[in-house]
Amino acid sequence: MSNVRRFGMLLALLVTTALPAQSRDQRSAAVGMRAYVEQLVLPGSELEPAPGDMKSPVVVRVLKVWPHGNQLRYDLEWTGLEAGEYDLAKFLRRKDGAASDDLPKVAVVVTRTLPKQQMEPSEPAPSPAPRLDGYSRLQGIAGIAWAVGLLLILFVGRRRRRAAVAPPPPKPTLADRLRPLVEAVAGDRANSAAKAELERLLLAFWRARLDLQQQKAADAILTIKRHPEAGALLRQIEAWLHMPAPPARVDLSGLLAPYRTVTADDFAPLPAPGQTTAGKA
Q1: 20 to 30 A Cα–Cα from 112, which one of 14, 17, 139, 175?
Q2: Between the CA of residue 148 and those of 113, 143, 155, 272, what are the distances in Å?
Q3: What pTM was computed for the model?
Q4: What ranges do the domains of the chain cover?
Q5: What is the CATH class of 28-111?
Q6: pLDDT digits (tens, 9 = 90+) for 14-43
Q7: What is the pLDDT of residues 213-244, one digit of tens each?
Q8: Is there a contact between 209 and 269 (Cβ–Cβ < 8 Å)?
């Protein structure tokens, strides 16, 4: 492997390790530590934290709420104050006062950081004092790495300028991104995060294509469902998710056809059904 490739792989590794995760599903945390359960789909009307007191073993906060078909999707933050296993659904209630006994169990585990009978932290083990020249040494290492990278660019990079550059691979289409999500929903293998991602992609795409940015999300979904082209895939997804016996044979290629030539740069607005270019003018 050439030096240029090694240097490039090292830079790529440093960049990717710094990228945050898109969603979190933290079902275990130590006492007093915050944890997050995001993109959680729950049935029924909107939920809020139930009133607690000083003896409550878990504190739950509702950070965000989105519509998700006939249900709602939540981002929750929870903190355990006493070690044990708990159900976050028991610490939520409905805003409209309806019963919440039908909520699925959201199991979490709170772990203790000290032994069971120990009330105070142990004395830290003795260790030698830290060196005071660490920052200067880090600066020296960074300067050497910068100099080596510059030399590789100046001398090794020149040799490769004359080589033929391979054409870039084609940009993935929206159909390429949607296919694994749609197949997972059709095969009843999709989790809540996959369903939420599929709904988010379809809603964002068609709101841009049909110029529905000013409408609320719920109104935009109804408009998309009525559209002959936009609503085909959305209606089929709802059939897979909610019908007792959804159709076994579905033309998946036909459903993904509107997305096969579309990339992120092609989100141009389309006229609404029955609206012509002359009518808009």
Answers
A1: 17
A2: 45, 9, 11, 57
A3: 0.37
A4: 28-111, 174-273
A5: mainly beta
A6: 444 444 446 789 999 999 899 999 999 999
A7: 788 888 888 888 888 887 788 787 777 777 77
A8: yes
